[in-house]
Known about the structure:
alpha/beta, Rossmann fold, 5 helices, globular
Amino acid sequence: MKVLVVDDSSTMRRIIVNTLARLGYKDVVQGADGEEGWKALQENPDIGVVITDWNMPNMNGLELVKKIRAEDKYADVPIIMVTTEGGKAEVITALKAGVNNYIVKPFTPQVLKEKLQAVLGVNEG
């Protein structure tokens, strides 16, 4: 399954990609902002999950989520928001926009694994 990682920080993208690789998700597409993420999603119809930052230039993560959710063909693609925005209001805003799960930075690989399994419906065992 292909994963789309969108974050304006190349360091954060590398951390997420490395964590995904350790979890067995080696097919990863990256974008440095919402516009690149949107383009990557359109060019890769087999993307199974989107992991996006909130605060990015050009198109932020919330705008990207709304754009994805406005398209019927992406209705079932799980989206995880990874951000420093940890306030309750921000979490609610993201969930209302269509985010399936939410991770506050900094996070551990275990947290990413759990959230990924939750949105994909994967059970360990």
